[in-house]
């Protein structure tokens, strides 16, 4: 990989918040405790990038990692950073001068599926401002949560989006969102009705964001986004066959119907 990076068009490059890009081979674990018990895990890899200076890969490696604005927010912004800025401004956060790190899965051979993309936003002095959690469901819906983690890097938010067909749109999320460094360790827990029926974790170890490292991961996890999407659907089918109740998908805007972003899947 070249040491160069492309700044977002029409925008002055922001100082890099920390060394990026980086790759995180990781294990994703889902645990369901109610109304029946189920757990599974799968392995994938994620990118940590600066959306103001996205990776510049050699031509041969570009099909293995695409970062496209259409895959984030409402797909109408010219760049990923522009989409983030629009969301922040619409929710009362001034995006000017913010330095951002984005954790995401890239587009691989034309396919992308991103259950969760995280954006850590810091001011020019490096102080944390907020975290944006952008979640996608398997129906093509998207939804974003603006989060203000506390000193323990924990944030809470009411569930506002339909993801798994086995949960209604209610309850509250409790998320542990430390900014990745040498390790990635993110956790999301759904709380509803006095219980904790679902939790998920993403854990991995940092690797250099180079073309060589990408090739090694792509060989080990070929077509990772497509595999993750298929695995979620197969797991959902198995749960349905076990008799788990299905909740209809809402049609209201903002709940993940045809236009809606959730980390819980099955």
Any chance you could write out the topology, listing elements then pairs?
Elements: E1 5-7, E2 22-32, E3 38-49, E4 53-55, H1 80-90, E5 99-104, E6 116-122, E7 128-136, E8 142-147, E9 154-158, E10 172-176, E11 183-192, E12 195-205, E13 207-208, H2 211-220, H3 224-241
Antiparallel strand pairs: 1-4, 2-3, 2-12, 2-13, 3-5, 5-6, 6-7, 7-8, 9-10, 10-11, 11-12
Protein architecture, described:
The protein has 266 residues and is an alpha+beta fold. It is built from 3 helices and 13 strands; from the N terminus they run E-E-E-E-H-E-E-E-E-E-E-E-E-E-H-H. It has helices at residues 80-90, 211-220, 224-241, and strands at 5-7, 22-32, 38-49, 53-55, 99-104, 116-122, 128-136, 142-147, 154-158, 172-176, 183-192, 195-205, 207-208. Strands 2, 3, 5, 6, 7, 8, 9, 10, 11, 12 and 13 form an 11-stranded antiparallel beta sheet that branches. It has a two-stranded antiparallel sheet with strand order 1-4. Strand 11 (183-192) and strand 12 (195-205) form a beta hairpin. The longest helix has 18 residues, at 224-241. Mean pLDDT is 86; it is low at 1-17 and 253-266.
